[in-house]
Amino acid sequence: MKTITATELARNLSEILDRLAVEHEELVIERNHRQVARLVPGPGRLTALEALADVYRTLPDAAAATWEADSRASGLQGERLPKGVRDPWAS
After folding, report:
1. Whole-number Å distance between alpha carbons of 85 and 56
2. Looking at domain 2-39, does it have CATH number 3.40.50?
């Protein structure tokens, strides 16, 4: 965890926030050699399709098939489920 001074934060706020967004690492802010705050990256964002992609595994087989068919047919804000539902944790 990197430590920066409050003065450095004030002088370079935009650059530090950009770096925080890219590096996803917490920063400790010090004032007068004492820790006063931490900057923590925000949570990542998922689309609704990504968030719900794995829900079919928690449903009984019949309910999962119905959910998948309905999802493919209706679309969500113009998006439709792809032909194959992928495992979001598979590499």
Report:
1. 9
2. no
